[in-house]
Amino acid sequence: MNDKPETAARPDAGSATKASDTSEEGSSPSTITGSAAVEPSPAGPSLFNRVLGLFRQRNGTSLREEIAGALAETTSDVESFSPGERAMLNNILRLREVRVEDVMVPRADIEAVEIATTLGDLLGMFEQSGHSRMPVYSETLDDPRGMVHIRDVLAHITKLARVRKGRTSRKTPVATVLDLAQVDLARTIGELNLIRQVLFVPPSMLASDLMGRMQTTRTQMALVIDEYGGTDGLVSLEDIVEMVVGDIEDEHDDDEPMITQTGDGVFIVDGKAEIDEVAKMIGEDFAAGEHGEYVDTIGGMIFNTLGRVPARGEVVQAIPGFEFHVLDADPRRVKRVRIVQSQKGERRRRATARTEQA
C-alpha cells in the first residue's frame, strides 16, 4: 500500500487527485489544511529552535537518529513537539523513502488537453477543472507534447486584444482597453505556440530527487512514464510538498468528503476512498477479506470483483452483507458508489418497486 503523509486528526476530506496549481510566481496564497501544518506556540521555543538544539546535542549519532529519538519521546513539557510538528518531522524523515509512484496522480485521473483543442475550448476546460496547468497530448496520453499554463493563455489573449486609445503626453499613462473581438478563439493550442516543456520521470524515482530537479529546472509538473514509454501518471511539486505538510487546499478544491453517511447503513463513497477508511466508518462488519490483499480503494475492489469497470446503475456484491450501487462511472474507473447493508438494500428495492407500481 502506498505511503501517505502522517497526520494527527486528519480532516475527513478527499485527497487531491488533480494536478498542482502552484504558480512559479505571483500565485495566490494557499491554505494548509492538513494537521501537519505547524501553528506557532506562544509558550516554549519554536520548532526551528528545537530542531537546531538537536545539532548541539549530537553525540556521534546522525541528525536523523537524533530527530527520530526525540520524536519517540512521550514527554509533555513545553519543549516537546506538538502532534502537528511530530507529523511534519516524521513525514520529512520518510520522504527519502517515498517514490514518485507513491504520490503521483494516476493516469485515469489526469485532466489533459489534446493539441488540436481550440483556444475557446481550452478556456472552458481551465474553468471547469480549476487547474492552472494541464498536460497537452496528441491523440492519446501516451504521446505527450508538454503542458499549457493559464498564465500564457491570458497573456496571449491580452496581447491580441490590447488597443491603445488616443495620444497623451509622455508623463500621462496611455489608456488601454481590451477588444476581445480581435482574439481568434478558433485557433488551436499547437498553432498558438503556447506549449511549455514538462519533465519525464520513471515511477521508481525518489520524490525528493524529483523535487530537487523541479527546483533546478523551474518546472513544476512531471509526467510519469512506464518502462514501455506509456504515461502512467502525473506529479506536481505540490503533490510532493503535501507529503510533508499535509493537504494544501485552495479556493478551487472541492470540499466534498470521501465518505458520507446518508442514512441508517447507507453510505455515499468516492471510488478513490481507501477500503480501510471505509471500514472504519461503516464498522467491523465491513470486512474486505482477500480484496484487501490486491487493491486499496473501493473502486479497485469493485473492478477486482467483476474483472471490468461496471456501468452506472449496476449493483455489485463485493463484500458479503453489503451491496455496492454504482452511481457514477466512466469507461476507465468507478467514480461514486452507494454502499448499503443487504437487508436495508432489499427493503429499499421493495419500497422503490411499490412506488413505481403506484
Task: Give your account of this protein's structure.
This protein has 358 residues and is an alpha+beta fold. The protein folds into two domains: 207 residues, CBS-domain (Roll); 99 residues, 2-Layer Sandwich (Uridine Diphospho-n-acetylenolpyruvylglucosamine Reductase, domain 3). The protein is built from 13 helices and 17 strands. A five-stranded antiparallel beta sheet has the order 13-14-17-16-15. Strand 13 and strand 14 form a beta hairpin. Helix 2 packs antiparallel against helix 3. The protein is globular, with a radius of gyration of 25 Å. The relative contact order is 0.13. The N terminus is likely disordered.
Describe this structure in a few short sentences.
With 358 residues, the protein is an alpha+beta fold. The chain contains 13 helices and 17 strands.
What labels describe this entry?
358 residues, alpha+beta, CBS-domain, Uridine Diphospho-n-acetylenolpyruvylglucosamine Reductase, domain 3, 2 domains, five-stranded antiparallel β-sheet, four-stranded mixed β-sheet, 13 helices, 17 strands, globular, disordered N terminus
If you consult CATH, what is the topology of the largest domain? CBS-domain
What order do the SSEs take from the amino end to the carboxyl end, as H and E? EHHHHEEHEEHEEHEEHEEHEEEHHHEEEH
Helix content, binned percent: 25-40%
Global shape: globular
Low-confidence stretches: 1-35, 37-42
Reported for the largest beta sheet, the result is: 5 strands, antiparallel
Q: Give the strand content.
A: 15-25%
What is the rounded Rg?
25 Å
Mean pLDDT: 77
Number of strands: 17
By CATH, the superfamily of the largest domain comes out as CBS-domain
Name the strands of the widest sheet in spatial order.
13-14-17-16-15
Estimate nothing, just give the exact number of structural domains: 2
CATH architecture of the largest domain: Roll
Distance between the termini: 49 Å
Number of distinct helices: 13
Q: Helices and strands: which structural class? A: alpha+beta
CATH class of the largest domain: Alpha Beta
